[in-house]
Amino acid sequence: MIQRNINRVVVIGAGSVGSSYAFALLNQSLTEELVLIDQNENKAIGDAMDLNHGKVFAPNPTKTWYGNYDDCKDASIVCICAGANQKPGETRLDLVEKNLKIFKSIVDQVMTSGFNGIFLIATNPVDILSYGTWKYSGLPKEQVIGSGTILDSGRFRFLLGEYFNVAPANVHAHIIGEHGDTELPVYSQADIGGVSVNTLIERNSHYHMKDLDDLFVNVRDAAYQIIEKKGATYYGIAMGLARITKAILTNENSILTVSTYLDGQYDEENVYIGVPAIINRNGVREIVELTLNEKEMQQFKHSAKVLKDVLAPHFTK
């Protein structure tokens, strides 16, 4: 992969998610250059102006401008946030047809610029569109990463923290599978400060597995609840995207639950799906295979099958 001395992030799609992500990047000073691209030129120009006016209050100045696809050539990361949004009553998988068409056009234009960095995909259905980006771009699978279940895992950790009355940073737990209705919690590997969740339930009569089952439903359906109340979700996912960006640009080798390509891991192949992976400057260094119990493995296989069935009409292996 081509390395640059200056980190540049290009955000394609200046809607709610894209602009929130740009805001997070600026506030955390995660990149030296930030480029905004949108079909609505005035929206992206306005965002660039607005962000630049706040630059004096940021930890470090980030060169920010409205650009075009030529700016992707020297980018470290191109984050795609463009596409049709999920509407009330729609599932993420309902967006497949329209967003694959949009993505084909976007990815073709990015690759024409000579881009050889990392694609970071935020648009839903993120697992399907990550697979599509990998196919359309021709880049190695390691250089195409979807946000996957990073937000679901964040929601999971937050709610578990509330339940056990500890800071979410001390909760280690994953949601894996499709970023959608077939995702699953990995309770067998979840722990609070090193003590397994299952052990805590056994030791304390105040805690019950039924409560955790209800908690997971709130995690899985959070997007529906937020969309019903405010029309879209964007702050949480923007912060998740910023976290992935930091892991890439600072070569962290951090384990994050993202959508990545399986090639035999978890006994699955030829699918992008949310699993823990080690992320560094080159993208996905390797996939972390959790030891799933029998129920979790069956749920994961079901989730992978749902995604493969959606992919099948659009892509050949």
Comma- or semicolon-separated keywords:
single chain, 317 residues, alpha/beta, Rossmann fold, L-2-Hydroxyisocaproate Dehydrogenase, Chain A, domain 2, 2 domains, six-stranded parallel sheet, three-stranded antiparallel sheet, 10 helices, 14 strands, 41% helix, 20% strand, globular
Structure characterization notes:
The strands form four sheets. A six-stranded parallel beta sheet has the order 3-2-1-4-5-6, sandwiched between helices. It is built from ten helices and 14 strands. The mean pLDDT is 94. 41% of the residues lie in helices and 20% in strands. The radius of gyration is 19 Å and the shape is globular. It folds into two domains: 8-146, NAD(P)-binding Rossmann-like Domain (Rossmann fold), CATH 3.40.50.720; 150-311, L-2-Hydroxyisocaproate Dehydrogenase, Chain A, domain 2 (Alpha-Beta Complex), CATH 3.90.110.10. The chain is α/β, with parallel strands linked by helices and 317 residues long. Strand 8 and strand 9 form a beta hairpin. It has helices at residues 16-28, 41-53, 96-112, 126-137, 150-164, 197-203, 209-220, 222-230, 235-249, 294-311; strands at residues 8-12, 33-37, 63-66, 77-80, 118-121, 144-146, 171-172, 175-176, 184-185, 191-192, 195-196, 254-263, 269-280, 283-287.
The first-level CATH class of the largest domain is given as Alpha Beta
What is the mean predicted local confidence, pLDDT? 94
Q: How big is the Rg?
A: 19 Å
CATH superfamily of the largest domain: Lactate dehydrogenase/glycoside hydrolase, family 4, C-terminal
Q: Please provide the count of β strands.
A: 14
